[in-house]
Amino acid sequence: MLYSNLNINEKGHLTIGGLDAEDLAAEFGTPLYFMDEEMLRVNCRTYVDAMHRYFGPEAAPLYASKALCFKGVYPVIESEGMYADVVSPGEIYTALAAGFPAEKLFFHGTNKTDEDIRYGVSSGVGCFVVDNANELRSLERIAGELGTKQKILLRLTVGLDPHTLEAINTGRVDSQFGVPIDTGQADGFVREALACENVEVAGFHSHVGSQIFESDSFNRQVEILAEYAAKLRDETGFVIRELNIGGGLGVRYTEQDPLLDIPERIAEIAAHLKTTCERLGLDIPRVFMEPGRSIVANAGVTLYTTGGTKEVRGYRNYVTVDGGMTDNPRYALYKSEYTVLNASRMNDAADYECTIAGRCCESGDRIAEYVRIAEPERGDIIAVLTTGAYNYSMASNYNRVPRPAMVMLSGGKARLVVRRESFEDIIKNEI
Ligand code: LLP
């Protein structure tokens, strides 16, 4: 099976972390998000250990909260030695409500309002990743008003398209995130930041993309950033102390996806940074990475109850589930592929080709198309794997569907970490 925490028990049911998927569904209801804390911890440790080994003991991974943000994730990542990136006051609020230390938060966001900036500075957020000059000016003013000097990284665009490398210096320069190096605009941005009194520039941030398997883009990214840092040092005397190279390492949604060796990839990036810095006579900065997907994706499974099958003769078979795009909009948005199992009939041949359709009145409400599972009967439990990232965090109440509950398996027991939304929750802000 795709992951080591999945198995089949004597009833022919799927087990996740040793727990029977049918029992979980019976106890907590469906749709249900399931998170395996041990998998989450293993993923954190993989990054922490590899980053320490290859970049040095000061290096640290930040967990990209956007992948899955709820209070219960923060004690886990904190105890594993991770920092966290947050992109909104809502994410800051959640992390702080969970007791996560503000100084370990890096505050992203392409349009931080003055209110957001004030909230971030006064909450004691450790570092702002400043996206543009407008934000810089507001931050300089607000930090001054609050009597603090705010540590910042400047977000730069390196002009790399990780999925079409030949498009280097074209596609990704045109981005709403950060300030491009290629167009020469980064020069003015950095100089303006260096002249500020109430911010302290620690270095640069850049993020090249998500679900990336090949190493070229990260190698090119650190090379471009180090070269740019050397150019600035020569021109201004400013030396970067920190370099945040973003997230983006890919995960395995289906058997067709490669299995990425994260430590090996980190070793490659570190070696590349080292050679480049040596060539440029630059001290190796403190490195941060921002993995989101590769921390939580494979720790998550979604369980649904099927309403049964529907054959559209001459076309295809549909299997309906009691959730869909409301709890996982990724197929509707990106045509992302998933591995789907009939958790109730794991010993039956997976030979029923079908499209998994959700409950919304929308033909795009699909979780997967043309997948093969054991032919289900109404009431069977359908499991969709690798749903830990960008599912709950992107869920909606479309068609007034309540968001599912989430349970976390810790120490052999599943405990409720997010309650299922009620209809009252859905109307609670309506006057
Ligand atoms: N850092 C920054 C600045 C980012 O923008 C992102 C993701 C990450 C870190 C984490 O990247 P990861 O390690 O998770 O690939 N909703 C999409 C993914 C959007 C990713 C946006 N930025 C999806 O469902 O695939």
Question: What does this molecule look like?
Answer:
- The structure is a single chain.
- The chain is an alpha/beta fold and 431 residues long.
- It folds into two domains: 6-36 and 297-427, Lyase, Ornithine Decarboxylase, Chain A, domain 1 (Beta Barrel), CATH 2.40.37.10; 108-291, Alanine racemase (TIM Barrel, Alpha-Beta Barrel), CATH 3.20.20.10.
- Helix content is 30%, strand content 25%.
- It is built from twelve helices and 21 strands.
- It has helices at residues 21-28, 37-55, 73-79, 89-97, 114-123, 133-145, 185-194, 216-236, 262-280, 293-296, 330-334, 423-427, and strands at 6-8, 14-16, 19-20, 32-36, 60-64, 83-86, 105-107, 127-130, 150-157, 179-180, 199-205, 242-244, 286-289, 300-312, 316-321, 340-342, 352-357, 366-373, 381-385, 405-410, 413-418.
- The strands form three sheets. Strands 4, 14, 15, 16, 17, 18, 19, 20 and 21 form a nine-stranded mixed sheet that branches. Strands 5-6-7-8-9-11-12-13 form an eight-stranded parallel beta barrel, surrounded by five helices.
- A hairpin with a 2-residue loop joins strand 2 (14-16) and strand 3 (19-20).
- The N and C termini lie far apart (49 Å).
- Ligand LLP is lined by residues 64, 66-67, 85, 108, 207, 210, 246-248, 290-294, 330, 390.
